[in-house]
Amino acid sequence: MRSRLGAVPGLEIIGSAPLRDYSRFGIGGPARLLADVSSEPALARAMQAIRENGEPWAVMGGGTNLIVSDDGFAGVVLRYANRALEIEGTSVRAAAGAGLQQLVDSTVAAGLRGLETMTGIPGWVGGAIYGNAGAYGHSIQERVESVRFFDGVSVCEIANAACEFRYRDSVFKRCKDWIILSAVLRLDRAEPAELRATAEGILKIRNEKYPPTMRCAGSIFKNLIMTDLPKAVQAQIPDRVIREGKVPSAYFLELAGAKGMVNGGVRVATYHANLIYNHGGGTALEVRQLIGELKQRVRDQFGIELEEEVQYV
After folding, report:
1. Distance between CA atoms of 133 and 146, rounded to whole angstroms?
2. Where are the beta strands (DSSP E) in 124-239?
3. Which residues are catalytic?
4. What average pLDDT does the chain have?
5. Does residue 1 have a pLDDT over 80?
6. Domains of the chain by start residue, with CATH
7. Cα gap 124→60, rounded to integer Å
């Protein structure tokens, strides 16, 4: 398999790649092969070779929202690493491998409003589309015009509505064989200085909550839609807690005693009940055990089910 993939132009291979080095959690065993693909033709050829060989495969981006198994992955992990970024007027085409911060910085400098609230969110554009990333009441879906992807056979492009965006969700989460290649976003004109001031203020707050050196995936659980909660639970929630129609998972987790919990090398932050981090030598098993305990506590106390934002490999 390695020799066949190695013959594909625009593809770089690492054998026995320690996935902990490619995950912000710093957790995970090796992938038998890690393949970075830099072009659409290379991706199509790589997928053909993988399928003809009957190889297990998985796709990852910047690894910022992943919990990788301690056993690693006994197959090929693909990363579409094209980092191209093109701005024309108020339209931006960003390849899936471009850093989300690179996209934010470029649009702010160009005087384009719409993505500045996402400053400081780590990861790649492809992952941001996949999980409909957002912050401060805005999500990337608001700015997406179309998404280009490889469906396993050919390259397709769909408009915003077909992406089926919902809160931290998209059609790409349900169609695991689809690999995001790029997205076209439409932004608005604004003064760069104004956008920069907004971004810098947000970045300061984010870095205090999620220091760049902290080995974590940000928030572990999705927030909850207020109207989806049982009436009895809604009645218990103070108005001050509700934000844009959502109730932070941290509200329930804090009441369930999550802050400061420890399981081996992983722990819940003492200042944020929805933040699990690897404080040294943590394992994926320990993370999953802690997640399971937190979900059980909230289930027992409130009768509701928390849903992870993080993805598992």
Report:
1. 16
2. 134-135, 138-139, 144-150, 155-159, 179-186, 188-189, 216-219, 224-225
3. 168, 219, 309
4. 95
5. no
6. 2-80 (3.30.43.10), 85-194 (3.30.465.10), 211-312 (3.90.78.10)
7. 10
